[in-house]
Amino acid sequence: MTELSFWTLPAETAVRSSHSGEYALTVLDPPLPGSTAELPPHDRARARAFAEAFPTVDAVLEELPPLPASEALYTETLSDLDLITVGCWGNVTCISDPALAAYDAGMTPVLQEVTALHERYPEALIVGSAAPDFGETHTEDVICLPEGLTLFASGFPAYATPWDVDGDPHAILNALDIDLADLTDDEREYLQLDAAPHLTNWGLLGGLVLEHCGRKLRTGLETSVFRVRHTEEYTAAMEEMWGWTAHQL
After folding, report:
1. Which residues is 222 bridged to in the sheet?
2. Which of 117, 145, 161, 169 is 20–30 Å from 3 (CA)?
3. Ordered alpha helix ranges (H), the chain
4. Phi, psi angle pair for 223, to nearest 5°
5. How far apart are CA 191 and CA 209, in angstroms?
6. Per-residue pLDDT, 110
7. What is the pLDDT of residues 7-61, one digit of tens each?
8. DSSP secondary structure string, 196-228?
9. % helix, strand, coil for the chain, step of 5
10. How high does pLDDT run on average in the chain?
């Protein structure tokens, strides 16, 4: 551990698998389903406040130049895992944080942080998704409606078991007046909601919910980039996932 992080391995240690991150959580404030108008410019001050209060973060150490909202950070070393992005565009807030993919040791970080945010923003729609890929992709997806109705799905899409699914996707869609008949053939093919869990693209379902409720990202939007010190618990989980090869040397 140093004053900059809780890593026990050197921060420059190469990660187990370099990739752009797929671990995001989005908060949509009311009214819902939301406006179809383009979102306003990014609010950097609100983004920093959101990052500082996010439960995976122990401290915000540095603010880096902003990124286009369409771009993702690339992870090569452990220190890269301490970079997060936060976009705040009107009633839409989105954070991308590698800690959300720390599913090791039975953790469910997406569900945990969605639940925590629901307590802070009880009137908001919150959608979280993480899909780290280390040769075998593990996914965790959560949709939480303002009244608390929640859908949680976690497992390995390549395998029929084990899967953990809690909640009814049809109840989520009905509550938001989303009709499966209005979806494209491709969308219906990947949303086999009554089939075995591994046959459903749960991340796609969350994306459809967000689009229906007004998350219309336009060209030119930016996100803030922060270097943070993650909490000791989340740092340990990320080190176990991404830095395990160094422990074998």
Report:
1. 68
2. 117
3. 44-53, 109-120, 169-175, 185-190, 202-212, 232-242, 244-247
4. -130, 150
5. 12
6. 97
7. 999 988 888 765 555 899 999 999 887 777 788 999 999 999 999 999 999 999 9
8. -GGGS-HHHHHHHHHHHTT----TT-EEEEEEE
9. 30, 30, 40
10. 89
Q: CB–CB of 165/153 below 8 Å? A: yes
Tokens for 124? 């908001």
Tokens (6 digits) for 168:
């009814």
Q: What is the distance between the alpha carbons of residues 28 and 133, in angstroms, rounded to a whole number?
A: 27
Ramachandran angles phi, psi of 64, nearest 5°: -100, 170
Gyration radius from the chain CA atoms: 18
**Joined tokens for residue 89:** 């565009």
- Tell me the pTM: 0.93
* pLDDT digits 0-9 by tens, 139-194: 999 999 998 999 999 999 999 999 999 999 999 999 999 988 888 888 888 888 98
